[in-house]
Amino acid sequence: MIIGLEHYLFISAILFSLGLFGVLTRRNAVSILMGIELILNAANLNFVAFSRFVTIGISGQLFAVFVIILAAAEAAVALAIILALYQNIKSVSVDEADAMKG
C-alpha cells in the first residue's frame, strides 16, 4: 500500500477536528491551549505533506519551522497569562476569567 497525500490530509483533518473540539468544549485554560497546539500541528502536517507531494517549489518545511516557532511563543505567552490568572483568582477556568475585568 502506497501512502499518498490523501492519507496525510485525512490525519491532518482528524487532528484539526480534535483540536477544534478541545478548544470549543473545554473550560480549563490549559486544555484549550492543548487544543490550539493540535490545530497548529495539523497545519504543520499539511505544510510538510504538500511540500512532499507537490513539486512546484513550495518549501513546506520552512513554513512548518515558522509555525513551530510561533507555537512556542504562543505557549510561553499563554502559560504566563494562565499563571497570572491562577495567581489572581486561584483558578484556571476561563469562565472565571471575566472577574479580572473590573
Structure commentary:
- The chain is mainly α.
- It has one domain: Orthogonal Bundle (Helix Hairpins), CATH 1.10.287.3510.
- The protein contains 3 helices and no strands.
- Helix 1 (5-25) packs antiparallel against helix 2 (29-53) and helix 2 (29-53) runs antiparallel to helix 3 (60-89).
- The model has no long low-confidence stretch (mean pLDDT 84).
Compute the average pLDDT.
Answer: 84
Helix content: over 70%
Write the H/E string, N to C.
HHH
From the alpha-carbon coordinates, what is the Rg to the nearest angstrom? 17 Å
Number of helical runs?
A: 3
Low-confidence stretches: none
- Give a short account of the largest sheet: none
User: Between the first and last Cα atoms, what is the distance in angstroms?
Assistant: 60 Å
Shape label:
elongated
CATH architecture verdict: Orthogonal Bundle
**Total beta strands:** 0
Give the CATH class: Mainly Alpha
Integer count of domains: 1
Strand content: under 5%
Which structural class do the helices and strands define? mainly alpha
CATH topology: Helix Hairpins
